[in-house]
Design goal:
Residues 284-368 form the 2Fe-2S ferredoxin-type domain. Keywords: 2Fe-2S, FAD, Flavoprotein, Iron, Iron-sulfur, Metal-binding, Oxidoreductase. One of its GO terms (molecular function) is oxidoreductase activity. The protein is of the alpha/beta class. It folds into three domains: 25-114, Translation factors (Elongation Factor Tu (Ef-tu), domain 3, Beta Barrel), CATH 2.40.30; 131-257, 3-Layer(aba) Sandwich (Rossmann fold), CATH 3.40.50.80; 262-367, Beta-grasp domain (Ubiquitin-like (UB roll), Roll), CATH 3.10.20.30. The chain has eight helices and 19 strands. It has helices at 97-104, 140-152, 174-183, 211-217, 232-244, 263-278, 303-309, 345-349; strands at residues 25-35, 38-45, 58-65, 68-75, 86-91, 111-114, 131-136, 159-165, 187-193, 205-206, 225-229, 252-255, 283-288, 293-298, 327-332, 335-337, 352-354, 358-360, 364-367. The strands form four sheets. A six-stranded antiparallel beta sheet has the order 4-3-6-1-2-5, covered by helices on one side. A hairpin with a 2-residue loop joins strand 3 and strand 4. The protein is globular, with a radius of gyration of 22 Å. It starts with 24 loop residues before the first strand and ends with a strand. The chain binds flavin-adenine dinucleotide (FAD) and FE2/S2 (inorganic) cluster.
Length: 368
């Protein structure tokens, strides 16, 4: 019978589960080149422990670069069926501080702090048994974790896996996907390239994914669950294409790597805030010690949004208490924080807060 993996891959008895509250530091065991600008980093816990997660989830890592603490999310590209290590697969982003540091400086034996696996972008718990994965660039990672998991469990999961790359030299996991497809015929990878690479003429589908190509590669796509991850314009184009082709969008799932989709929520907050100013709500003073600025924050506005409106740059990513990017030290004052797992209890006890999901209950002093 076609069965997707269980919601949480159980850790075998006799093994210890990795407990990020107790030991949140991981050691890099190996670094592998995937393409000219993509590397995989394989991590293990410091003590004998096994990871427990669902394929498609991500972790937030903490980096100390140039005297600054920076957080970035990375999808776990390895499957839960290989629980002794986790892998992340990182594409170099031109000018990006973290991806370039990982590629140029980070090596086997070095350590990183990280959070518990998070995220909902997974087929785990689905009752469907036919899938269409569509990825662009580094957006391949969650699909790869799901496909590796299906392969390890010898599932007959019927996976059509379309990956779009610029050239054949940019196809991530090409050999491994072809190998899995050759050994398990229910895994069907198809690559689409925009152009040839320097040393290889691309004989397969060319250009961008459009409805004509989709109908050719996967004529029964309307009867599948579709999972999409890639650059924002790519995801937008795919969404419009399948919606326009009459796909039932309740079976359509997507993951964004830059949380662009959440800016709409931030926008709504700005509208809310404008309304707030017209109603008699309490307004608190928020002092940012590093920038030396004090701003006003109405009681129903997040501190992050108040900072943004005043032109103070606080690093943020998801704007929903998930990724930990906006984590800051609160020197004094009280907050009402409703996070979604991006901060640990011991950090809250130590006076830290996620400014994207925290509203003031008093005047505040924040180390930013
Ligand atoms: C849930 C989640 C999962 C993620 N998983 C992965 C993953 O598996 N592999 C991976 O390589 N990255 C992944 N990312 C992106 C990653 O967190 C970083 O944003 C990325 O590595 C760039 O970091 P940076 O500090 O070098 O550049 P940043 O300062 O973060 O980004 C510089 C600029 O590049 C854009 N950008 C960010 N990521 C990309 C990208 N992948 N392609 C093109 N433009 C980009 C940003 O929007 C920004 O404009 C994920 C992000 C999220 C939110
Ligand atoms: S921006 Fe992601 S937790 Fe605040």
């Amino acid at each position: 019978m076609d069965m997707p993996e269980p919601k949480i891959a159980p850790v075998p008895t006799g093994y210890y589960r990795w407990e990020p509250e107790e030991d949140d530091v991981l050691i890099c065991r190996a670094v592998r080149n995937e393409t000219h600008d993509v590397k995989t980093f394989i991590f293990a816990p410091r003590f004998k422990r096994q990871f427990e997660f669902v394929s498609g989830q991500f972790m937030t890592f903490e980096f100390e670069i140039g005297g600054e603490t920076i957080h970035r999310c990375y999808t776990i590209s390895s499957p839960p069926s290989r629980p002794d290590t986790i892998s992340i697969t990182v594409k170099r982003v031109p000018g990006g501080p973290v991806s370039n540091w990982l590629h140029d400086e980070f090596q086997e034996g070095m350590m990183l702090r990280c959070t518990v696996p998070m995220g909902e972008f997974s087929w785990a718990g689905e009752t469907q048994s036919k899938y269409l994965f569509i990825s662009g660039g580094s957006g391949i990672t969650p699909m790869m974790a799901m496909t590796r998991s299906a392969f390890d469990h010898a599932l007959i999961a019927d996976i059509e896996f379309i990956h779009a790359a610029r050239t054949p030299a940019d196809i991530i996991f090409r050999e491994e996907l072809e190998f899995m497809g050759a050994r398990n015929h229910s895994i069907k990878p198809t690559f689409i390239c925009e152009d040839d690479s320097k040393f290889e003429r691309w004989p397969g589908y060319r250009g961008r994914l459009d409805i004509a190509k989709l109908e050719m590669i996967c004529p029964d796509f309307r009867s599948r669950s579709i999972y999409v991850c890639g650059p924002a314009p790519f995801m937008k184009a795919v969404r419009q294409m399948v919606k326009g082709a009459g796909f039932e969008m309740s079976r359509y799932f997507e993951e964004s790597f830059n949380f662009d989709s959440f800016t709409e929520e931030a926008q709504e907050q700005i509208v809310e805030a404008t309304e707030v100013i017209e109603t008699p709500l309490k307004v608190y003073q928020v002092e940012f010690t590093k920038t030396g600025r004090t701003v006003e924050c109405p009681e129903n506005l997040t501190v992050l949004e108040a900072a943004r409106r005043a032109g103070i740059r606080v690093p943020s990513s998801c704007s929903k208490g998930l990724c930990g990017t906006c984590k800051s030290q609160v020197k004094s004052g009280e907050l009402d924080m409703k996070h979604s797992g991006g901060i640990r209890q011991r950090e809250i006890d130590a006076g830290k807060a996620l400014l994207c999901c925290a509203k003031p209950l008093s005047d505040l002093v924040i180390e930013r």
